[in-house]
Each structure stands twice: as C-alpha cells, then as structure tokens.
Design brief:
mainly alpha; Leucine-rich Repeat Variant; 0% strand
C-alpha cells in the first residue's frame, strides 16, 4: 500500500470516527430531550399543587396530600422534580417537599443507595440527603467520606455541610488527611463552617493532627469562625510546626482573632531569620490585628530589602490612621510606601 493510500485510509478513519461521535452526541441529546419532555408531561397534572406547596401557599394541605398520593411513573417524575427544587427553596415549603419525598420512600432509598455499586448513584444519593437536611443520614454520609470515588466523597461532604450537624466535624477533618487523596481542603472548610460553634472541639483536635492538611484547615477555620479557645495552640504551631503552610495559616488566624499579646508573637516572626513567605504573612497579620503596639515593628519593616514585605508593612500602617500616617510620611520617598499610599487613595482607605 502506497503512502498516499495510507494517508487516505487514515483520513477516512478519522472522518468515520468524528461521524460516529457526532451521531452519539445527537442521539444522547435526543434521548435527554425526550426523557425531559416525558417527565414534564407526567408532572403536568400535579404542577398546580407543586407550585402551591413550593410557594408556601398550600394552607389547607390539599396540595401536599395530592402530591403524596401520586403513584407509578408520575411519582418518580415528581420526586425528580422535587429534588431539583430543594436547592432553590428554603424554610417551611422545603420541609414540606422533603416530607413528600419521605412519604414516597425516597430518603430511605437514598440512604440505601449510599452503598450502591454505581458511584453516580452513590453521589446523587448523598446530594439528595444533603438537600433534604436528613438528620438520619449523618452516620451513613460520614461513612461515605471514605468512599473510593472522589465524587462520592465530595458529595458526602457537601451534604454534611447542608445538614450542619457538628457530630460530623471530626470525620470531615480526618477525611482531609485521608491517605490516597482525601477531601479538598476548601470543600471541607465550607462544610465545617456551616456547622457553627459546635465544631470547636474538633478544631482543637485538628490542630494537633499528624497530617499538615488537617492542621491547615483547622487553623483556617479558627480564624474564619472566630474560635479563640485554640489561641495557645495557634501560637505554638506558628513557632514550631514543620510545615510552612500551617505556620502561615496560623499567622493569618492570629491576625484575625488574636489578642494584644500576639503583637509580639507575630512581630518575632517577621525577623529575617524566618522564611520570607512567613515574614510577609505575619506582617500583613499585624495590620489585621490592629494593635497600636505593632507600629514600631511595621515602621522598621518599611526599609526591608524585600520590596513586597515593605509594601505590606506600609499597607498595614495605612490602617492605623494618624499614627501610621506619621510613619509613612517620614518614609514617603521610598517606592513601597508610595505604592501603598497610591493604592490606599484609589481604594478610599487613606485617612
């Protein structure tokens, strides 16, 4: 076979492959459209009741009774529609819709589906249980945090955040540090923040977890949620933790929730003997802390060899009002100070 024939065969092969892919896409879209049309047709006779319940206008309960009595294909179509509404509706109407799902056996089925062989089914089950705020699902969802499928673990964490039961807090932190790729730290942090003050003990344990990922999330949450009880641990970790990210996160938390004595703690870690990234974070944290005792340290940092650190010190001093402005005026010819003052003017924060 000549090279020209080989090239032609290759081109035909690619063309046939593209054609087959196009056919698959068209068929898939057509099937989805047909399925959606059928679902809407099945829901149509119940739409008036569904709207009344969703809008909180089912005063007599007639709509709920009618929806609960649906059976056959219409029940399945209704349950799918209600599941989609739960992410958009809050309060009593959402509770009433969840009650309808419960009467249809959907919540019990979803709890069972957390053990289904299909990861797609397991993930969807976790999401429905979360949207339903099902308190009975907490323990099964905690178990799903160890699922081998990423999407199932993420869906379980999302669901636990929606339910908001602090009993799951320790398990979420442990899942971040799980071997083989645990939960994304941001997802775990969002879920934990939604659980309120009940996660305080879990954060304390997380700060001493052997895995730096768990310590980082716990330190971040201490600052984001104003949990002050672990302050002594945050100070210790800033000084001795072997992981730089953990130290930086502790510094940020101290800047947000620290006390007057933390000026000295943060100032000590702006010294040149410490890693530059940590020095920068501690400089910004001194500004966040807002204690006037930090002004001398920040003034000295205006002349640091690292221009970014010097600019962070100048930005921090802007927040101290007249006391900071006096220091900045004395160093107004330096580039970091000029840059910080320009940004402050543009932002309207210069006082």
């Amino acid at each position: 076979m000549t090279s020209g024939s080989l090239l032609l065969a290759a081109v035909l092969g690619v063309a046939l492959g593209c054609l087959a892919l196009g056919v698959v896409v068209v068929l898939t879209k057509a099937l989805r459209t047909r399925r959606e049309s059928r679902r809407q047709a099945l829901v149509a006779p119940h739409r008036q009741h569904l709207i009344a319940v969703s809008a909180g206008e089912d005063d007599t309960g007639a709509g709920r009774r009618a929806l609960a009595a649906a059976d056959g294909p219409a029940r399945a179509a209704l349950d799918e529609t209600i599941g989609g509404l739960l992410g958009k509706i809050r309060g009593l109407p959402a509770e009433q819709l969840v009650d309808i799902l419960d009467q249809h056996g959907q919540l019990e089925r979803a709890r069972a589906d957390l053990g289904h062989r299909s990861p797609v089914r397991r993930a969807r089950a976790a999401q429905l249980l979360g949207l339903s705020r099902d308190p009975e699902a907490v323990d099964p969802l905690v178990g799903a945090l160890a699922d081998h499928a990423d999407e199932v673990r993420s869906s379980a964490a999302y669901a636990l955040g929606l339910i908001g039961d602090p009993r799951a807090a320790t398990a979420l932190l442990e899942a971040v540090a799980a071997p083989g790729g645990g939960l994304p730290a941001g997802l775990a942090a969002d879920a934990l923040l939604s659980m309120g003050i009940g996660i305080s003990d879990a954060l304390t344990h997380g700060l001493v977890d052997p895995d730096p990922r768990a310590r980082t999330v716990a330190a971040h949450l201490c600052g984001a949620g104003s949990f002050t009880r672990p302050l002594p641990i945050l100070r210790d970790l800033l000084a001795i933790d072997p992981d730089l990210t953990v130290r930086e996160t502790c510094a940020l938390a101290l800047g947000r929730i620290g006390r007057a004595e933390d000026v000295e703690v943060l100032a000590r870690h702006t010294e040149s003997s410490h890693p530059l990234p940590l020095r920068r974070v501690c400089t910004a944290a001194l500004g966040d802390l807002g204690e006037r005792a930090a002004v001398p340290t920040l003034a000295a940092l205006l002349h640091d060899p690292d221009p970014r650190l010097a600019e962070l010190a100048a930005t921090a001093l802007v927040g101290f009002g007249p006391a900071g402005r006096t220091v900045l005026d004395a160093a107004s010819q330096t580039r970091p100070v000029r840059s910080a003052l320009t940004v402050a003017r543009l932002q309207g924060t210069l006082r």
